[in-house]
């Protein structure tokens, strides 16, 4: 059976700072491709990395339906929300306030369930606040773990209400796994990949 995995997210999904294998989503593709060639995975999978640098749920909503339908997505993985929780000090607001974020997550899930029977949401990972208060590349932007946890909790609650799978990766990494305080290094991407891989195997998705 032919299946298409589409992974939607931001720069972490895109693979930023993994100079070895291009990020956790690309590591997942390489693993699945290898397992297919060996015959250990019987279904035929095509895996697409649809991470976009700097993306928020606002941005993803604008592109999701077209990209997911064009690729005939049978398995949709969302890894979005870290950028939403960033606080813009000049505007005194989050890039995507929590109430708007909740609305966006619900809309993404509704659109995804109309396309695929298998929808998965990943929570965002830890940041190193010594390097994110403010962010090195945006002096007016601040990112705190307590805010990430609040946004993750909202994803978890909405996922449970909609009976879709949720994977928490917040405690999977430590500060030493982060390249710049936000983006995982190669070792951090490997840890996320392994957690996602085991989760997909346990739920008999791959």
Please explain how this structure is put together:
The protein is of the alpha/beta class. It has one domain: Rossmann fold (3-Layer(aba) Sandwich). The chain has seven helices and eight strands. It has helices spanning 11-14, 24-38, 57-70, 98-113, 129-132, 145-161, 186-202; strands spanning 2-9, 44-51, 75-79, 87-88, 93-94, 118-122, 141-142, 165-167. The longest helix has 17 residues, at 145-161. The protein starts with a strand and ends with a helix.
Number of domains: 1
Indicate the percent of residues in helices.
40-55%
Instruction: Report strand %.
Output: 15-25%
What's the level 1 CATH class? Alpha Beta
CATH topology: Rossmann fold
**Helix- and strand-based class?**
alpha/beta
List descriptors.
alpha/beta, 206 residues
Short recap of the structure:
The protein has 206 residues and is α/β, with parallel strands linked by helices.
